[in-house]
Write a structure and sequence with these properties.
The complex is a heterotrimer. Chain A is mainly α. Chain A has 28 helices and three strands. Chain A has a three-stranded antiparallel β-sheet. In chain C, helix 2 runs antiparallel to helix 3 and helix 3 packs antiparallel against helix 4. Chain C is built from four helices and no strands. By secondary structure, chain C is an all-alpha fold. Classes of the chains: A mainly alpha, B mainly alpha, C mainly alpha.
Amino acid sequence: MPSVPLWTIVAAPLLGGLICAALASRAKSSRVDDGRALRAAISAVACCAVGGSLVAGVLASWPLFAVTFGAAPAQGPAALAAAVAGNQAAGLLSPQAAASVDRWVTGMPYVRETLYTWIDTGGIALDFSLWLDPLSVLMVLVITSVGLLIHLYAAAYMADERDLGRFFCYLNLFCAAMLLLVLGDGLMTLFVGWEGVGACSYLLIGFWYDKPANGAAARKAFIVTRIGDAAFLLAMLVLAWNFGTLRIAEILERVTVVWQPGHPIALAVAGLLLLAALGKSAQVPLQIWLPDAMAGPTPVSALLHAATMVTAGVYLIARCHTLFLFAPAVLAMTATLGTITAISAACSALGQRDIKRVLAYSTISQIGFMFTALGVGAFVAAMFHFFTHAFFKALLFLSAGSVTHSLDGETDITRMGGLARRLPMLTMLAGIGAAALAGVPLVTSGFYSKDQILWGAYQAPIGNASMWAVLVLTAAITALYSMRWYLLVFWGEGASERAADPDVDVGSGHSSALHRPSRWLLWTCVPLAVGALFAGFVQTPERLGGVHAFEQFIGPAFLSPGGLTLRARSDGEGSALAAEAEHALELRLMSVSSAAVVAGLLLGFWLYFLNPGIRRLLRASPILTRLRQVWAAGWFADEVADAMVGQTYTTMALLLRSDPADRAVLGGARGVGWAHRLVARTQTGRLQTYVAALLLGVLALLTVWLWSELLPLWPTGAGG
Amino acid sequence: MGAEGILTLLVLLPLAGGVVALVAGRRSPRLARVAALATMGAELTIATVVALALAPRATLGSVGAAQPLLLRERFEWVPSFGIEFQLGLDGLSLVFVLLTALLGTIAVLSSWREITERCGAYYLCLLATLSGIMGVFLAYDLFLFYFFWELMLVPMYFLIGMWGHERRIYAALKFVLFTLVSGLALLVSIVTLYYAHGAQAGNFTTSYTELLGTTLDPQLSWWLALGFIVAFAVKLPVFPLHGWLPDAHGEAPTGGSILLAGLLLKTGGYGLIRFAVPLVPRGAQELSGLLAGLAVVGVFYGAFLALTQTDLKRMIAYSSVAHMGFVMLGIAAWSLEGLQGAVMQMLAHGITTAGLFVVAGIVKDRVHSRSFADLGELWGPLPRLGVAALVFTLANIGLPGLGNFVGEFLVLLGSFRVYPGWVMAAIVGIVVGTVPGLALMQRTFYEPRKSVEPRPPVPDLDFRETLVVGVLVLLIVAIGVWPQPWIDATRSALSGVLAADSAFRPADPEIGLSGRDLVAFAAPVEIVPTLFADPAKLADPADPADPAELADLAKLAVPVEQTEPAATTSREAAR
Amino acid sequence: MSASAAVPLEHVLLLGAALLAVGAFGALRRRNLLFVLVSIEVMLNGAAVAFVGAGARWQQPDGQIFVLFIMTMAAAEVAVGLALLLRIRAVTGSVDTSGLDRLRG
């Protein structure tokens, strides 16, 4: 097994992006027809770059797998990944492979690679170095594998795009930035990637720049996330000031020595990092940018705004979890905001009519689940949900893209329907995705990961029953809107047949002009569908197999130096009896949540399939109509944000437009001008005036002189 | 380097080249261009060779050593007044000399097609300005410094007034009035300092190194600092004194805008670092809190005003006001990181803003307008220019990996200990500054055009233009990815400047939370902040929550030679 | 000596001052350039009277010398003044001073 330097993981897509840019500038000059080969080359380069990154990622993370699964064989009957790693690659899991792996103070294996010193002021040194631990391995593998599939999909989906080179350049650069983000050893390196993905996101959302709306959406996304970035920057300053370093591992080690839980600086830093994460991950109150970000091409939505970039916030909190453990108040805040986001966005998703906006809100909602998990201290559950979510959400977006593609750009789900007969494979793929999103019990990955979070919300130190209840309700709503989305898009009558429905503005039925999505588009989704179904089996509840491969691998990343943990509520963890009771409780709770999901699914099935007529009745209710309007507008978050921030900003800008400070300074100059005019008026040009002034002056001087000099002499009569 | 007189050559070469260009311009404009380009090419080569030869020594200079000069040249000039022709080069000057040579070359190249009338005279003015700027960065005698300071104004006045755009006369007049006031303040301060030093030390001299140690009566020091700071603050510019900048930048020809934004503003920052604070540390200290505040106000003010501009060049100009706010903040903090940040910010801002003005010049060349109403949809015909503009814009709004971020981060890092409140505000200012940056890209390259008039075909960049923007893009990326050489080059020089006035410690911020407050707030602090802690100040904050301890800390913060007990007690009382 | 004793210096000075005042008033008030010149002559005479009076009071010849100077200078001045007057009349067609304000600021 050759040892692969970590930087190749980042460098591959970076290089790919640069090559794409170079090819793109060539494509401009060549003729359209000649461009075909060039375009193929661009696609190939972009895909190969991400593929190369995937290979490098796998090779680089192999030693970590080896250490985890090779050294200590996995317990449990169905240690799937462990079997793969342990048996098939037994020859590879030699000590040499694991030789490059270090162990952190918590025993977590990691690989560190310093590239060079970026900034060394004499006071503080910022290395440009990479760090691979189980958490980054997970992120790297998900980003590169999902990224590769999306790149392959995009190669076909964007085939007619004029600016293909620019597109793939941005997309590859995004991958590079994202990989840098998850591989960064220091907060600063992480921040470089963090801002990089923000910039690439801006470029990709505004990719079709002819429409001003896209540009506005891109700008909004960038600026809103930059609010979070500013918090990140401030957090770095505070940390640098306190610890003199920005290396995460070093900070976490020092933190446990120096701070007590609840330390004010810990609260400040954790709060700032939370704000940063809220911005990047589109959580309340900074969620407003994500729905608009759907203006970008669909592969972009799939890669950036579903699978990877928006989870950067989750990663950040997970990476700095020790810091957050010192700030329980911030953790509670995280959980609360996550829960609020989850349920509010789920409701909003219910009110959307745009095929991608439904998914956008569902993304916000699902990341809300992850934030809740982080907040209650169930870090593994959060990462697990990230892991499964990446597959099914990418799958859903790519399916949505295929649907839009085949319907000639139609995006309104109320004007779709009846695709199931025509596009069976797409219907199946999307069905898998929707089922996973809904969390259909037992068979989908979404079920397992969501269940972990629900269990965490109930049982973890910061969680409580009400939080659990809200999340269960959210899960039910999720099931409902997944069903709604799926049934409206693929089932029911086609739009033309639904012409009778007065509330649906019918376009010119699309049934006639149906572009079949190419095989390529569909087949790139298949691995995602497999992931959406089976990715959940790497970590299952105790009573359902009790596989812990995921936790076994990633768990060490969530050990804190000094053994700091949140105090668990349930005492007697070690006793078998308590564990047994806990497993039983877990199963009971799981039944309840599964029932809720099934209820949501059935309700959706009834409303949108069995008895669509009932919806007309529901629409008559003013309360429901009002609610729907609120949800369709995403709780009017845009309006509120605009009134609070946007208006203030514009008002300030307009107030200052004429540069009042300059005017004030110029006011001085103007005073000189006035003085000039005033004095100039005495210059009449008439000799006699001058003479009069002269005489008056002489008189005045004489008077003064006489008064001051001669008057005192007067009484003495010294004249003679 | 056995090259005597190389600094003098650096200063005088552009002027000589300008005269040659003037003569050549009589024959053909092209000849003038070639002459100017050859001159600046030679200048750039010399500067680069000097830099490469001296870089190791600049880096190795011991931290804290007084005045680690790399090169020095001195001739008698007006001995009866103690005035010398004295040039000196240290790491700090080196950075700016390189920037000057580079941007001078860029300015010559980007004027290539724009200037068609009185070409020779144009290049004379351009190169004479460059001579002045070069002299400012190298002068080690205050009178000589003043001489160069004024020398760079006159040709610049003609550049704006003769080859500028529509409102050039107004802009040129405004520029000259502002800078004359600044120059006057500088002259008065220099002369006063000259006499104060002469009366004290017995030898009347304008040599920088001689004047450094002058101890001044507090009140005089305050007034002198005010004079110096006003002089340099107009140039930088600091918030309420920025009025000349948008007009001058907006109306100047491309080459002039490049010199203005890329170099002239930097002379202000350089002057503050090299002269204002070290010469009159005590007065500067009293004003530093105010300056930090004005700097942050400028960050916001520039950003807000940039957004409402309808003219591409004015927008760039106003965003410069915002970015120079960071420079001012870093200088006001007067810590090593802050100064390094200020220098990096100036360097990077010089490159990006010059780049943006080049972009504006090319856009104007193609579309014959700088108004956003006529711009838009330019990405299609000018993709390479678009990429360059994108890189410059992203750099300007502080994207890490590009040069400006390094500067901004170091400034914030260096100021955080001194002015945490202002730093927090400045960070918000970065977000605010993002908006106009993106708006610039949007309105110029992406959005549909507002005017419906048919636009003549827009040809893509030619080789010369590609070269110009390409070099700038590569540089800004290089600085962002690998800033260490620059930081190394300036470190010893900046430590020297810092050490030159041990008296100077930034005043306690009146507004906002001070670092010390934060320490107290965050009790119990078990760890001594290693990075920024001034050992004298935070000797052993065993229990800073103790009020007596706090009072002690507060006392230590006040400069040791404080002679006004009233101020000390009032400050303590306020606490 | 005896003659001067009859007229006290104060009276002479008062006469001189009165002449000066009358002349100044005329010079300022009259619009006709000719009368302005005449008024200036009157002012000069006021000064001359003061000189004569002072010379008589202190028995010094200087006063009378000055008077001679003044008369010579006045003649020269009137010559230049009248020449200008003629020139102005030729150019502007009048000798009114109110039109002569081309140096107005």
